[in-house]
Records
---
Amino acid sequence: MNLQNMILTLQRYWSDQGCFVMQAYDVEKGAGTMNPMTFLRSIGPEPWNVAYVEPSRRPVDGRYGENPNRLYQHHQFQVVMKPSPDNIQELYLQSLKEIGIDANEHDIRFVEDNWEAPTLSASGLGWEVWLDGMEITQFTYFQQVGGLDAKPVSAEITYGIERLASYIQDKENVFDLEWHSGITYHDLYYQSEYEHSKYTFEVSDTDMLFTLFNIYEKEAMRAIEDQLVFPGYDYVLKCSHVFNQLDAKGAISVTERTGYIGRVRNLARKCANAYYEQREQLGFPMLKGAKIDE
Amino acid sequence: MSKHDLLLEIGLEEMPARFVTDAMYQLSDKIAGWFSENRIPFGDVLPYSTPRRLAVKITEVADKQEDQEEELRGPAKKIAFDDEGNWSKAALGFARGQGVNPEDLFFKEVKNTEYVFANKFTTGISTMDLLPQLDKVIQNLHFPKNMRWGDQDFKFVRPIKWILFLYGAEVPKLEVAGVRSDRKTYGHRFLGEEIEIESPERYPTDLLGQFVIADPKERKEAIQNQLENIQDEERWKIPIDNGLLEEVTNLVEYPTALYGKFDEEFLELPPEVLITSMREHQRYFPVQNKEGELQPYFVTVRNGDHNHLANVVKGNEKVLRARLKDAQFFHNEDKKKPIDHYLNKLESIVFHEELGTIADKVGRIKIHAENSTELLHLDSDSRSSIQRAASICKFDLVTQMVYEFPELQGVMGEKYAKLFGEDELIAAAVNEHYQPRFAGDALPGTVVGSVLSVSDKLDTIVGCFGIGIIPTGSQDPYALRRQAAGVLQILIQKGWPVELEQLLNATLDVYEDKQLLKNDRLDVFNQLIEFFNVRLKTILQDQGIRYDVIDAVLTGELGRVDLLLKRAELIAENLKHHYFKVANVSLTRVLNISKNLDEGFGEINPGLFENDEEKVLYEFYLSCKGQSDAIQQPEDVTLFYDKLMELPEVIDRYFDHTMVNADDEGIRENRQAQMKGLSEVIRSFADFNQLVV
């Protein structure tokens, strides 16, 4: 199964389980969790079921396209279900079967893994899922998001698409993966991997990035103060990405690091609180919908 | 009354392996405790667990509580009657409350007061009716980390999926987190199915048919046997790490061991790197040949049967290959740069915000080490080795390998240091200075490593105390307790002629010079002494030394801890002997006399002695003091001890002929001074008053 079909299969499958299939968010981010469709929507009592592919940027993992396993940008397939259904593990295992991984023919384990995202003031408990010893998925029950208790709890399933594909396609090197019709990952991403790595480590203007961080932070603050949660949150994401770029370049010392993480976290918490209040004022509209359904 | 077996199984989403065993015993202990409290007799308690279930079977549980007859005390007799001599409200209320007729009340005296009493007879309730209360017991299980799920407010280790609950053939009612008891259970996640259990006797046999070995001991044995089979067939040696075996046992319900291979070229990596990759990251068992050399194979345990094993082997080989490739890359990259490159980088790594960078810490370690070198009168060769080792002891923290494998700090330091051309002794010290890494770990073998280890640990402990980071309860993020125990063990084993107080003060001096002490120095010092006192107590207890003996030797300064331990050992060994008991009477007699005397006493003036016994005692005192002052090593402590044990003979004669409380003031004070002096010498060994003999 090529990578494109794998994604299509997962989308179809989770759509059948009642998830909205959404598209990736258009602001740079380090993980699918940061997409407002996970971060903001997992806050508050309203039910929420969503699935989407998220291209996630990790500047520090950039390797100029030379490393078989590490990428500046990889893809996550993200599923969030709130409240977490009782059969969520079974739903997940069935999804693996859909993409050709029959649990009976492999060794699948749920190995303890506690997740924490300090920049989002978010944490959860769950597992990394091992397929024959390889971690293919992060499986998390959110306990806290943006400093707020997750109530009800969302289950978040994050598939590492390249990891899974390399297993399914039996490839040692991520760049050898077939995306579709003989077109490889190399054809599609090698050039951008190289350029982003070179830019991140050699070319990026450190002073400008520091300036941007401050500008974005200020703008995020201003938007949130005006109760504009989504525009505010976009700037939080931008802060986070700029921070990751600076961090990858080694421009932030260890002492300063804690400070910058704290600044992003502070913004994320403000967004979380503002979002909750907003939804509360609206009477948690999606909650009502759910009740009528019953 | 009849009896039935009882079975309770809580089905869960996969628990963290490290919680399973403890949770299993908690469940069985608490349930058995609940039966005892509720006066329900029962037979054997059999605990079971897998990653997905906690279970307990209890045999021969009585179907009814035992009846209970209690004598209950009510109000005092004087308020039990009203003015007309009828039962008062208080008495009637008591009778009603206990469900007895007022005419059955009687009187009894307790501590000179008469009270109303009632005999209350409670008929036991049927067990079946009480069992739903077990929900409280389940809710009270304690886990290091709990979670919520769905829209539950209830917290548990992982979501509860089912509750299998049987009392004989019946299903008692029970509900936890919205899950109701049933006779259903589930087999292996992939190989098994949902089944119904008829009665507790069928458990765990029926589960085995569903590819679940519910008894962890059996699972562990199965894994061990499989490992041994592979070992014999392949003529390997598979060293069994008990921690790993335990973890793997709690990661699978139905184990099947298998082995895979990796490229021989990876054997060029340090064995520790290979072992860590396999053991820590993948939970594999590394493989050796009969000569104990690492082989390019690994053994892993699958949660399942033998079918499609080739897939599992292939997948695991792929994962390990990627990991080892990474490690190889880091190893090659690390070797390319000189040691100074790493030393410079230490300046950008923060040790603690208030205590500076790792480079700052290294700077301090060098001074501490220099101070110790002087205190220990080490020669100039050792001194220069110590200084070099101190300078480079942390360089590997910024190598890529240690960044990726933090557990290899020190180990990689030694390897790389040798590659970079450092002296063997110095390279070894880079590793040794982390020892002991855990309770029971080896201590540094060399003087250089020992000095460094003590310097590094004291630097952390004193630094943290100086800014108010003091371990409390379970809070000890910098593992200060472990480090303090390490320091004490080294001091004990090496027998350094240095007092703990000296080392602490020298370390405090450095912090004071650098203005890194946030709190008052004397306060910090006292907190440190208290802290080390408790650590030392633990070490002595671990050696099997009794509390009273520990209290006797831990009265004043800690001083040289090796000698302190020797004193404790001497007392502990001889405590039971008759001669010791006799000596103890004399020793405590002197201690008690001097305890009641005023503070301060003058020199003992032999010119004021009135009898020979005083002279003899004085000579005895001088020779004791001489022995005490001359102590250099533990053997000298024995000599001092032997001398002290001679006291009874001398002191008994003395008291027969001498009144300490003499009429003449001069003579009296002189005798008191004698007692004080002698008492001080005795106390320098131990406070014998603390002993229970």
---
Amino acid sequence: MTTSATAPYESRPIESWGKMKEVRRNIMRDLWATKKRGDILYQGGYAAMVSLPAGLGNAGAFGWGPAMASIMRDPELARRCNEASEAAGLGSDCCVTLRVNFGSALVGIHNLARSGERLQPDFAWDVHQCEAQAKTAQYFAEYYKVPFFAIDIPILPLTHDLASGIKYVVLQMHDFIQWMEKITKREYKDELLVEAVKREWKTSILWSKLCELQKAVPAPMDYRLLNSLAALLVTSKHREGVPELMADLVAEDEVRVKDKVAAMPFERCRLLHEGQPPYYYPPLLKIPRDYGGTFIGGRMLFALHGAWELHEDFSWTVSKTPEELGLPIKDRDTALRALAELYLTYGRMFLQNLQFYKGDEAIQVARGWHADGVVFHLDRGCKGGAAGNVKNRTELQQAGIPTMCYEGSNADPRDLAENQVVDRIEAFLESLGLKKIITAKDGPDEKDD
Amino acid sequence: MPVATEQKVSAWDKFREIVADRHAYAKEWKLRTGGKAMGYMCTYVAEEVIYAAGVLPVRIMGSREPQDVTEPYIYGMYCPYCRDCLAQGLLGRYNYLDGITETHTCSHIRQAYDSWQKFVPIGFNHYTYMPADVRSPRAKDMFLIELNQLKKALEDWTGKPITDAKLDKATRAYNTNRQLLRQIYNLRKQDPPPLSGLEAMYMVMSSFWMDKAEHSVLLRQALAEIKQRPPRTDSKLRLMTIGSENDDPELIELIESFDAQVVIDEQCTGTRYFWNKVVPQEDRLAAIAQRYLDRPPCPMKDLQEVRQRPKWIMDRVKEYKVQGAVLVRLKFCDPHEYDLPIIRRTLEEAGIPTLTLERDIITPVGQFKTRIGAFMEMLQADII
């Protein structure tokens, strides 16, 4: 069933997007030039506490894999990488981010620069909050034969002594810094750490502000645009230029909200997408567009890079700044304390691993962001992200919020039955009373991804 | 009239009986003692603290039967064991429990615990954070704080203080039990060993549901009974099983139905559960904390640059003169999947052939029989 209609909202591209691409490109260029500069290169350092190696200078971060975006643009390559990991003995049902990135090493592209040079990391490290995260760094440490360090993140319920958890993480960070100095034989400069932590905090708050602006009807951005920032945020929240970019995006979004400029000209239905999307299949996030629907974000996406204050009813508001919270960032110790607080007290990503509150938070996010429905990705490749999802789905349904689930994988195309999933999402949209709109093709350009 | 003599039940039959009818013991224990029973799922739960509170720790395990009650709670790509555990709660099979507790372990078991404490009516629940990097110098202080919280929660719940004397008594009971299990395991170094792998599994698993003091009585009886056994002369292939919960005695029985014997294991229904003891310290909880940090780690807890598990496994391979290893992994069990390639490589580089079996809660007997049979033929050919 289709219907023709006139778009109720104005839509236009994000003006700062060009700058975003430039910042992203510069960071990638910078990464591949790490060794030429004589700087340290590390594997890991993904999505949290990324400031820690900053005291070593302009260290380059591989994250989990610098080729991830290229692999996701090429589903056939994604298949090859996954299969290479499986041939090396990893189960096809374990963390796909580990499989695809480790597989990229096995097929020879993980550390291969465009110049043809191969970059050898100096060490591997990561925080450990799900089963896979530091284990991935451990795998790479063994592969590249470099030292390895894990920082264990305590997953504590709200009833526990959070101060002890903060202290535990801070002490491990101190150990990590001493370890880095020892293995790299470089002086660690606290003033660089201080500046990096300030930027990591700032970026996190600005991310939350950007997400909070999504509460507006119509939403100024959609899931795809927000998620396009992930490549920057997972490894580079602490780098110069990133908080500045985020500030520009927030400022532009505020104007868009004021002027009711929409991401999608039709916003008859606001949807949340829970779990990472199948990165190799971008059309999925565009399906609602044809029905006048918009994926405006998701609890996991908002949580992943943000700094949020959690309230008693499990709703979130953007966190205050470290200064306002009484967390001055002046020296090594205060910087590490502020960094631990950012992820243990104000980050909603790690603590979701406990699952206790995930359902309550999902309901509050759906209500706070005025969502008409929630689409859950039962991600076979991310146990942490999908944990509790079927239970949360029931909890949302009981709270009167329509939901649907689809099975897939964020990075393994073999796990997604595309046609079936498209059919299911379309059926869900129709169950919400929507019909296909003939003219709804004038959203942000595809190249904006 | 002849006086009727009571036929004493063999300890080995009793172990098997406890495993087969696992709920009967705890129910009877509660009636007999008037005490409370506390369920837990992961062997990183510090049972000594619960025992010191006068509460019987009871391990929640699956029943290895097909079930359809967990779909609204846990997505089907999480390990079948965690779903099986939750199913037991949803089906009311552990409804004699007065409380439930869990420690920080994999996201699979944490989901089972989360849904249990929310959807299965229960009087008490408490979660304890257990550090993931157990060899970190910072882990002990963190864990100790959490154990103190567990102790306080138990005291509040039972209304009785957990004194040092009670902790000492509990620690002694657990250490004695562990020492006896080690003593019997040591006998398996003999060729041929005087007990089968199946018997060893029943012996360890029965301790999950029994009061440790009473289980130790059975272990002493079992030791005495072993001495009465006629010496064996049949030498069989010596195997090690390695894996996660591996809670299926039928699988061990199947392996041993060939010309082979499981002489040692590395699994949480075996050595990982009991291998090391609490070394007494002035601070009782600190001593208990150290025991759990020092125990043979599961993959969730092995986060050092030099992995602990491969060395621990190789040490047992040498001690027990292992000739082949069966790596048993549960479908969807990520932590074990991450370690498996490294462990397999370590064993094979040391000349120990391996067979990897991926199982669900139900062992596919026909398939496995063929694969195990082929593995045995290969091993025998290698040895000849």
---
Amino acid sequence: MDFALTEEQEMIVATTRAFVERELYPYEAEVERTGRLDMDVIRDIQRKAMEAGLYAANMPEEVGGAGLDTLTWLLYEKGLGRANYALHWTGVARPSNILLAGTDEQKEKYLYPCIRGETWDCLAMTEPGAGSDLRGMQATAKRDGGDWVLNGTKHFISHADIAGFAIVFMATGEEDTPRGKKKLITAFFVDKGTPGFSVREGYRNVSHRGYTNSVLEFDNCRLPDSQVLGEVHKGFDVANQWLGATRLQVAATCLGRAERAFDHALAYAAERRQFGQQIGKFQGVSFKLADMAMEMKAAGLLTWEAGWKFDRGTVTEADMSMAKLKATEVLAHVADEAIQIHGGMGLMDELPLERIWRDARVERIWEGTSEIQRHIISRDLLRPLGA
Amino acid sequence: MKVLVPVKRVIDYNVKVRVKADGSGVDLANVKMSMNPFDEIAVEEAIRLKEAGKADEIVVVSIGVKQAQETLRTALAMGADRAILVVAADDVHQDIEPLAVAKILAKVVEEEQPGLVLAGKQAIDNDMNATGQMLSALLGWSQATFASKIDIEGDHALVTREVDGGLQTIKVKMPAVVTVDLRLNEPRYASLPNIMKAKKKPLDEKTAADYGVDLTPRLEVVKTDEPPARAAGIIVGSVDELVEKLKEAGAV
């Protein structure tokens, strides 16, 4: 096993890190204070990100991306993850890989504009009554003549406000399986402005200020067949095949944020003096740092290994779940301890710690809750034994 | 015109430097190293000259340990065309003195025949600020140091220099050695596509022996100390008290 990064990987890490510190950090305080991100700011970051080749770098080279392998892409995600989520998601967008599953016409209409920074995509699956249990979705698309008619509500849809279109998952039928009836799901492209489709402001929430969520309403929204992404009734297959390593992306961005919190804690422990010495000399503080460093390293190794295996086709669902679960929980731990080491100062918005601590909370919920990840891991272990 | 840019691998400017226990220098073992920031500015300026059609090839050269190859790759990823690595030390703690560096560079210039050498004004590790000047003396070329603006006009260059009390613009005959200051430009990011391309760019590896330059140190480091700790301040109650304290301290 070779754990060393290549020269290219080192340079990509350095470029991403320098970009995040110089171009994103200066806007953070304003976004955190207002919860808003101005289009002027987004355009400024976008232009610079494109010059640096960082924009849509997750995409293959032939469509205008950087063609990074999964491990290198995750190292880049870790770098971006240090900054406020809204800033890096909009300004240094990574369009969803699922756009690669479209037909040539669909790629022209949806994928390339996202890569060129002209618009953004958003994915709509979650409903008020269907979170972890996605198959429980109530929103439907029904055949009517040659068209589809969509009805229902989706919520918690990230950045749907600035997206030009949504990739929406709808129940289109039912099938009998040995474990009872299961819903059949189909994915659709829905453009903003389509009659019967509306987007309204979602909820204010504790994590990722400036990174909005919306409620999507479908009221007899009529779409032609050409708006179907992938095959009819095969929406989950498209998602499983193309959504790719989103759990690893969550893990990597969490590692970046944990590292940033840790950097602050370490520097503070070496500088801050109480009772006549640096607080890092007290075992109560130094042992915290040791545990934080060890946990971050463990989460990193799980994530990099899963990314490495992803490209070799040997990654398992459990591998990705372990990385996501560990990294999100380590972030929560590290953010909490970094604040503890800072004492009261850690809670002030002068430092990024209070927001890293707030932002950490959603990570154990989205892209599969910690409980769902544990379910996936244990299922992988027990199923071969018939349990 | 070909531009030669010497780049040095130095301790990263973000690293908190630690003095070695024996006082012989600073500890460089397992410390993050990067390109000297002034050299980054020189590389950027060379790329801008090329983009403006005033230069057609950029050759970067680094003299030091083998790991300086990483620094050269960064320069190639920024946009340099070709690199020369001159391995002159095998221990990261062994610094090659400015005179030896200048002598090697003079040989490289002889081989490469550039029309311009663009160098950082100094390296942030030892702050010698000597190599560029020594190189111009060895070559018998004109020199312009601390450049904050460079205009190449035919066989002359107009260089604005940051000097005490203002800016001085001088006209130098080419070929020339120009050393660059902080405000000349803001270096670009090594972009992802260029990082991928850098690997395919040529990097020649040489040794100091290939140039027959004597590396024996002429300087002796007597002692290296941590900067003195800042003394605690005091809070004064009034302007009068402040003036009084300043008088006591002999400051006014």
---
Amino acid sequence: MYFSRLKFCVSRLLFIIIMLTISPVLKAWEVSGYVGLESLAFIEAPLHDSQHQHYISGVIEAELYHEWDNGTQSFAFVPYFRGAQHDSQRTHFDIRELTWLKSAEEWELRLGIRKVFWGVTESNHLVDVINQRDTVENSDGEDKLGQPMINLALIQDWGTVDLFILPGFRPRTFTGEEGRLRPEPAVSDSLAEYDKSGFERQVSYAIRWAHSIGDWDMGLSHFYGTSRDPVFLVKATPDGQVNLIPYYQNINQTGLDIQATLDSLLLKWEAIVRVSDSETAFASTAGFEYTFFNIASSGLDIGVLAEYLYDSRGLSAPTVGQDDFFVGARLAFNDVQDMQILAGVMVDRVSQAQFYNIEASRRFFESFKFEVEARFFNGATPKYPDYFLRQDSHFRMELSYHF
Amino acid sequence: MKKIILSLYLAVFSSVGIAETQTGLDIMQEVKLRNTGWQDMSASLDMVLKNKNGDTHHRLMQMKVLEVQGDGDKSLSIFNSPKDVKGTAFLSFTHALEADEQWLYLPGLKRVKRISSSNKSGPFLGSEIAFEDLSSFELDKYSYTYLRDELQGTIDCFVIETKPQYEYSGYTRTIVWVDKARYIPLRIDYYDRKNSLLKTQIFNDYQQFLDKYWRSSNMSMENYVTGKSTQLLWADYKFKSGLTKRQFDKNSLKRSR
């Protein structure tokens, strides 16, 4: 009797002590994220019988964040999931971030899975090589898969030097048989080929120096390891089946990005030299953005953008623009709903094929956001790689709730 | 000898010529002097946007400011709400007459963007506050004219007209009511480019920190043209926390939240 009462008291005390110790910890954890519903509607009939006219999908991304030690240490975990109708390749889970960060006066250390962005141009991201792109997520190529890394930043008066060890190569995922925006045949990712195997394939290295001096922001970077963007091989099996196989080369890539901010005018330039066993390639994207701010005191900003994209690899280049012009306009209404519109067209200088992209977004009821994207392909000719997209003009709409 | 005569000549005539404007500058110098030496400041801000129908929207953010002697301050603002822009951060190095340096961090893309600072008159987060209203106060940014003494409420004030000397301002002038005892602004009237009254800002609920620095915890901005208003509710003011310029660089922008 006595013992059971004591046990009861002790267990209750323990419970209270545990709750007291945990509650401030739990309080210090922040949870945020969004859930969304997406509709992907194609205007024209599909080229292949296996494809569909309309696709629905749902998405959730959450962030669990905690910082301590006066904000000099933090932990972030960002799981991500999209469940997609029809195309099983598009249903995917990813850890966008799982990082521990420690910062000091002259250095910052990050361990874990992360996303990194380098560069300044808008129509193409040449120097941005750390992460694999999540191309099944959105055809705009802005989404990325989390990359495991050890990243040490050394912070000096003459700039920041970031050192990266990137263990764990992540191959690109490609649209499956039933998905749209794909070549024919669909890419066989299971047959992927590599220059290197084992440890050498898995581990890449990078270094970047970045600095701001007055109106100028610049970065110089080098990457060594397995390229994130593959070239494609067409191979036939003995029984006559043709496969499109991604081939990940081992590369040395040096990148430069510069932006000059001259009042309302931004001048931007990115360039890379990329050396693989088979070739040395040069690519560059350069242009400007000029913004008319607060037009007629309405709060509206209109930005005009123009860029030229070049790649010495020509039609075999893994990027969108090899000899293309991009022009666009960005409208920011700066209203309570944060309405924004970005409209642009990319034109191939030789074939004059056009790719139109219009993106609009707006907030509703404080926590909801509605996005519409329209992408149109026009004038592609058979020998160009965008020929396989000729029937794939589409609208993408996403409604999301943010918490 | 020639030099001495010239400077005497200038001294005599300029003292006659700009006696009036000198007073305005003297007062604002005292305002600046009394608000010097706080080193660094952090605070949380609840910005309440109210439209003509009385609908309200809240914008929550954390602000950190580093005092820079002899130049404009450095500031870092981190947005907490609305939720879809949570984690977006804005780093600004302000300067008196040169263009400010500004960077924006977009957490979804993990991208740091250098942005143009020519947008002085545009609205900050859809509010009635313009970017230039938030910029740090530096003497060289304006010219000053003392107008009169006047009560603002029950408080005896100097009334001073200021004219922006920097580029791209949305104002021809502002009229500032400065508390004679504490040398702090109590009210600012903003006149647009056509010189008509656009906005009035009222500074309420002043509190003193470190026995020296006065901060308003409730500012309201009323726009007469749009009929909208914005209230800035400040809380958790902290000074001299030992922040350094390292907390105001592109690296800390990337990990701010």
